[in-house]
Amino acid sequence: MGKTKQIAIGAVLAGAAGYVAGILTAPKSGKDTRTDLKNKAVETKAQAEKQLKQLQIELGSVLDQAKLQAETIKGKAKEDIDMAMDKTRIVKEKASELLDAIQNGHADDKDLRKAIDEANQTIAHLRTYLKKQ
After folding, report:
1. Helix (H, G, I), strand (E, B) or coil at 27
2. Dist CA 62 CA 127 (whole Å)
3. With contact defined as beta carbons under 8 Å apart, do 120 and 55 qualify?
4. How far apart are CA 63 and CA 28, in angstroms?
5. In the predicted model, what is the mean pLDDT of residues 73-88?
6. Which among 39, 119, 46 is positioned nearest to 111, based on CA atoms?
7. What are the sequence ranges of the domains in the chain?
8. In 9-112, which ranges are E strands?
9. CA distance 5 to 76
10. What confidence tier does 69 reach under pLDDT thresholds 50, 70, 90?
11. Please, are residues 101 and 111 in contact by the beta-carbon 8 Å criterion?
12. Helix segments in 71-108, DSSP class H
């Protein structure tokens, strides 16, 4: 599922880049071009926000599942799951901070992509770990 999301993110970013390239080479007035670029930026931002919100829900869900399993685990396995849960909480907090930054217009594409990748990897890692237990 993580690879599918990464492909979807890549497709969205590639589509946005293609759209921008097309707009910049199209015979439109500067005002029309700026309006189109602004609209596409707003749309891309909305898609990123939606994706981060969905990842936050998934992170919360996998954390809840881990908490339930952690209650029955002892020893080294308990330490391992606690560390994985701590990492998941940190990633969830980063996603929340990035959502705030997006809403305030202070996020860039590099931070967004990194947060989405990290959230997907963390979800996959914790789910894999939980299946082993």
Report:
1. coil
2. 7
3. yes
4. 50
5. 85
6. 119
7. 2-132
8. none
9. 32
10. confident
11. yes
12. 75-103
Per-residue b or e along 37-68, where b marks 16 or more CB atoms closer than 10 Å to that residue's CB: eeeeeeebeebbbebbeebbebbeebbeebee
Structure token pair of residue 106:
């202070």
The tokens describing 96, both together, are 């929340």
Structure tokens at 123: 């979800």
pLDDT at 60 over 60: yes
Rounded distance between C-alpha atoms, residue 130 and residue 61, angstroms: 12
- Of 25 and 73, which is predicted with more confidence? 73
> What is the token pair recorded at 86?
């701590």
**Mean pLDDT of all residues in 123-127:** 87
Task: Tally Cβ neighbours within 10 Å of residue 100.
Answer: 11
> If you search the block for the tokens 């931070």, which residue do you land on?
111
Angle at 46 between CA 12 and CA 86, to 5 degrees: 90
* Structure tokens given for 88: 């998941």
- What does the alpha-carbon distance between residue 109 and residue 93 come to, in Å, rounded to a whole number? 18
